[in-house]
Amino acid sequence: MNLLLRILAFLGALVALLVTSGAPRNSEPAPPTEAARVQSLWLYRASDVRPTEYCFARALETGACSLCADGGEPMAIDAEYMERVDQIVADYAISEWNGFSGSRPYVLDGEMFSLEIVMAEGEEIHASGNNSFPEHYLDVVGALDELIGELGCAPGAQ
Question: Does residue 7 fall inside a structural domain?
């Protein structure tokens, strides 16, 4: 019986370690910075409910901006929305996500994501995860979902 309790305690500690993934994280975004210009931002998310995919794009030659959500046709958007995407990328220091590739294979329900950003200056940012996310991931996804909702393209609505 004593051995069984020790094994259960060990398994509980192991699960807690997997869930918290180590050090606590700061939940505040980075201080605001001057936003760099995003040429394109593509985000794919899949969970138990429904996959969601969207892409913001800016034509550098003309400044025309567009949004494509869940495989639909691209729709023109005002430059102010693309400037808000720029600000989200800057505020949450998403460039620091470059190269992130995390996985928690023992989580049975959850979400996976893939993110690709091309900055106007040519820098590329690639990040992906399976039930493992970079710092401020949920804040960024929430801000982008809110922006898409304002444009009448609620994620996963199609």
Answer: no
User: Could you tell me the sign of the dihedral formed by the alpha carbons of 128, 132, 135, 136, in that order?
Assistant: positive
Domain membership flag for residue 3: no
Considering its fold, how many domains does the chain have in total? 1
In the 8-state DSSP scheme, what is residue 37?
Answer: P
In angstroms, the CA 79 to CA 35 distance is: 14
pLDDT tens string 96-141: 999 999 999 888 778 899 999 999 999 999 999 999 999 999 999 9
The CB density around residue 98, as the number of other CB atoms within 10 Å, is 14
Beta strand 101-103 with 124-130 is: parallel
Range of the domain at 62: 35-150
Quote the pTM value: 0.74
Which phi and psi angles does 133 have, rounded to 5°? -135, 150
